[in-house]
From TrEMBL:
Subcellular location: Secreted
SUPFAM superfamilies: Trefoil (SSF57492)
Leader sequence residues: 1-26
Keywords attached to this entry: Disulfide bond, Secreted, Signal
Pfam families: Trefoil
Classification lineage: Eukaryota, Metazoa, Chordata, Craniata, Vertebrata
Biological source species: Gorilla gorilla gorilla
Isomerase in keyword set: no
One GO cellular component, as annotated: extracellular space
Protein name (Swiss-Prot/TrEMBL): Trefoil factor 1
Gene: TFF1
One GO process term, biological-process aspect: cell population proliferation
Domain of life of the source: Eukaryota
UniProt domain P-type: residue ranges: 29-72
Amino acid sequence: MAAMENKVICALVLVSMLALGTLAEAQTETCTVAPRERQNCGFPGVTPSQCANKGCCFDNTVRGVPWCFYPNTIDVPPEEECEF
């Protein structure tokens, strides 16, 4: 019985590591955008959830600029192959 539990735990750890690795690789956008550089992605009265559903960022702390805006693209350098 204990051997089966160990196999299940190992499988869950492996799946979690693969999922987290994929998320880290796929993150090529950031919501860190200077207020004056924000490109509007919403409409007047847009809610944070409506904005997020469009794949955009929401920040209502700065007046006079779009609160729902497109994220900045991060330049991700290609992975280098390791030599052993």
